[in-house]
Amino acid sequence: MRDLLRHLTESLEQGREQIVCQVVETKGSTPQKAGALMVIDTSGGQLGTLGGGCVEAEVKQRAIRRIGRDGAEVHAFILDHDYAWADGLICGGKMVILTEALRGEASLGYLQAYRTLLDGGEGFTEAVVVDPDKLKPAGSPLAFGARFLFDAAGTLKAGWPSSASATELACLLPPVPLVERPKPAVRSGIAYLPTLPRIRLVIIGAGHVGQAVGSLASQADFDVWVVDDRHEYASAERFPTARRIVGPIDEVLPALEMTPNTFALIVTRGHGHDQEALHHLAPTSASYVGLIGSRRKIKLIFDSLRESGTPDAALERVTAPVGIEIGSQTVTEIAVSIVAELIGRRNLGPAFRTSASVPR
After folding, report:
1. Which parts of the chain register pLDDT below 70?
2. Coil vs helix vs strand at 131
3. What are the phi and psi torsion angles at 128 (to 5°)?
4. Cα–Cα dist 23/39, whole Å
5. I want to staple 216 with a disulfide (CB 3.0 to 4.6 A). Which of 80, 149, 323, 339 is the partner?
6. Cα–Cα distance between 146 and 125 in angstroms, integer?
7. CB contact at 8 A, 233 and 212
8. pTM, 2 dp
9. What is the DSSP letter of 311?
10. Is the dihedral of CA 339, 343, 346, 348 positive or negative?
11. Which H or E element spans position 345?
12. Is 226 helix (H, G, I), strand (E, B) or coil?
């Protein structure tokens, strides 16, 4: 999404018209969910996807016909046997897609505000008018396709094609607080599309597993940090997309800010380092603390920490061992199992937990 927004804003800054195609509502099984974005330029080039297949191809053709035109257009697709058999889209769901050609300073200002919120990582909600007839109160001046951005605190930050008046704002329901991990939803004719806060993943240990996890997690849009006491391991060559912090664990970790938007993964080179890291991380407010290792190793570390005074409540929230059980053997397979679990925790919250209970 960041690359797509960067391309979109840079294109508009250079005066190049772009057509935005966005999924604003889905029902049932669909190849992409609400919020998915595809951008088409006037030469037919494409960035992003709506899920591929016949739906994407048809939306692209319709989008190209909007070049030079004002206003938005909505398209609804039922993914059933009759519509999409040839492309295998027998999902049975429904996708509602909004297309609109963007040009000029007004749309650029809105997209710059969108990009600022996205880069800030705190989360935000976009509200898009998709059915003006259902707006409350009736007779609202809000037009089809009007867009509004609310920050994580629910404060209106930008509107397009113009900022909302007091009358218009009366039609906008407050976005669901992001701490409730809301799903995209359409309410009273407006699609609310939340972007949850970006998760910072702190990897303690820059060895082979840490490196593989860091690479995959970065591709999955985690903000990756890596901590190790060895410069040659926590290097730019091994972690090109991560923030690297080199120093002793007992000095680095107490100085790091841990918030509910922080995940911490302990994959150091030895039991002693693992125990030291868990001693500092278990009591923090990080919403996920994971420890790699065998059940015997984990039990020994937990027992030792209990004896040294770490509260049971702190240890009970630790995920250990980490990763989804897929029979992992190689470093890559182990990393895949771990990152899959991290994605599950990010997207579904604490209810997503696949590992065994904390050792007693």
Report:
1. 80-92, 139, 162-168, 353-360
2. coil
3. -125, 125
4. 12
5. 339
6. 14
7. no
8. 0.79
9. -
10. negative
11. helix 331-348
12. strand
